[in-house]
# Entry
Amino acid sequence: MYYTSRLAGIAIALLLGITIALADNNGAIAAKDVGTSTIVCAESEVLVMVLAEAHGAFPSAADSATLIEARAACANGHVRDAMRLYDRLVTNLRRSLAQDGEH
# Structure
């Protein structure tokens, strides 16, 4: 439990840092939507990485493939599709962590 809460604290600190860094550079980005989608994708990426670290690895190869799809969707500006994929990853990782905690 302590390990998971510590990871959550680290994730919040990383998200805050990314948000501040991207907000400072937001003036250099031509389209405001691009800056917003970059922040959303970065936040989701950090959350997934923290959960994967807490688990020790991705529960399945399919989750690794989903992460690659989510990253590609973000890179191509398809934020809604990316968020759907990131949400699926978060759900799978949380479920797997809960099952690990029961054993």
Remarks:
- Residues 39 and 103 are 36 Å apart (CA to CA).
